[in-house]
User: Fold this.
Amino acid sequence: GAVVSQHPSRVICKSGTSVKIECRSLDFQATTMFWYRQFPKQSLMLMATSNEGSKATYEQGVEKDKFLINHASLTLSTLTVTSAHPEDSSFYICSAQGTSDYNEQFFGPGTRLTVL
Amino acid sequence: AQSVTQPDIHITVSEGASLELRCNYSYGATPYLFWYVQSPGQGLQLLLKYFSGDTLVQGIKGFEAEFKRSQSSFNLRKPSVHWSDAAEYFCAVGAGGNKLVFGAGTILRVKS
Assistant:
């Protein structure tokens, strides 16, 4: 149980285009999902907290107009990187919080974004 | 603010040897503590967690961790390392609003 999927696993796009990444909780409902960014050989940095049916809460320094988050259902959150540039290239990981243990998050496998 | 320090960026151990990965945290109240493992290009897998109670926590894959409040530490241990344990390990503390704050990670290399 507690499986989280991400799609796509890998994407390459041209500078200026937008890319959408999906995060799904496959066998449980997640009222809260989190989006992280991980640079090579670095830790995970929380970008935003996504709550079903409401606006996402962004961490300081994260551009909400650039990283659009939608959490339209209890099993799906999407991250759209708008007008992507090479500096947006990174590994994006989502997690979904279950309803049992406090703070326990279940992580997706990640999406590798490369912007040319 | 909450913070997590993993002082060792890289650790190399021989297969079959014991392992200890260090983690120190900064948090005002009783922390919720986690250890995750990440294989290259993959997401994170939870190894174990501490919420309350027994300070020695058993996890998956033969790992354990001990919460020591006096030292603000939550070190991860394994008595005998296998080659498949080579990965990156992250310690994390539960912050407010159900967020997690991660340490910088420790890369474990296992030599045969």
User: Anything to note?
Assistant: Chain A has a mean pLDDT of 91. DSSP finds no helices and eleven strands in chain A. The CA atoms of residues 54 and 71 of chain A lie 7 Å apart. Chain A touches chain B through 25 residues (CB under 8 Å).
